What does this fold into?
Amino acid sequence: MVKRTSINEQSKKMSKADKNYPLDVKIPNNIMVEVTNLCNLRCRMCYNQRMKRKKGFMLFSLFKRIVDQAVDLKIENMGLYTTGESFLHPKIFEFIKYAKQKGIRYVYITTNGQALDDEKIEKIFESGLDSIKFSIDAGNKQRYESLKTGASW
It folds into this structure.
């Protein structure tokens, strides 16, 4: 079994290895977490459709470990998106609430908005999400729908 260590523990070990060259690691205050790499669209400019890795949802247990370590490292901001549509994740609102309860100051998501309905919009407000940005990528229906296959203007 492999023993997992935090970034801080690894940094301390590396600094002890060579006292002449201490490792002074500045931890960023922002972290991006890919809660899913599944997407409901096929956008022409997006890498998602060309990904070779397995697609799926992050387990809540893994997310909790990430958040707990982030809090220990004094990370203040957390984005819950990268290559997938976060609002497809069935536990996204639990993820947001957990991060906020543990002390992540600013939790944010960028979304294509296509997975949102009235119920999810209400849950966004209840969850404590600090910011939501919508990827529009076009100024009219024709261009939008030609760039974002599967989207509805």
Summary: The radius of gyration is 19 Å. The longest helix spans residues 60-72. Residues 124 and 139 are 26 Å apart (CA to CA). The first strand starts at residue 30 and ends at 32.
